[in-house]
Amino acid sequence: MIKWFSNFREFFYIQMERFARQAVREALTRDGAPRVSREGQLRVGRDTELYRILNMHYNKSNVYQVPERFIEISEVALREFYSAIWTGRDSDPCWKKGIYKIICKMDSPVPDAFRLPGCPIG
């Protein structure tokens, strides 16, 4: 679904980068010495702040049930952004392209519910 809605895609990736940068900051100690990477501990679930922000932005009235696949892809995206930032790959001007390709390959077709007449998105 991410690739079908460009405004969603932009907001999605902005939030992924924001939360990944926050996680990297939290992974550093006060004196700046890096701790072990927390990449494997990052998760997105229905009870997380990231999920809440994404859902409230595009599903304000909670009309649609968010598919588990979306949560899975969100978690992969968050970990990819985190890994790139943690390892310093974000210093390259094109650093996000690899992440976009990974997520694009995981994307699935637009659900039929979004194609129905009267759908607020379709």
Automatic annotation (TrEMBL):
Places the protein is found: Nucleus
Give start and end of each Prospero domain.
1-122
Under PROSITE patterns, the record lists:
HOMEO_PROSPERO
Q: Read off the Pfam families from this record.
A: HPD
MF terms from GO for this chain are: DNA-binding transcription factor activity, RNA polymerase II-specific; RNA polymerase II cis-regulatory region sequence-specific DNA binding
InterPro entries linked to this entry: Homeo_prospero_dom, Homeo_prospero_dom_sf, Homeodomain-like_sf, Prospero_homeodomain
What's an example GO BP annotation here?
A: nervous system development
| Keywords from the named record | DNA-binding, Homeobox, Nucleus, Transcription, Transcription regulation
Which superkingdom is the protein from? Eukaryota
Record-level GO cellular component terms: nucleus
Give the protein's recorded name: Prospero domain-containing protein
Q: Which organism is it from?
A: Pogonophryne albipinna
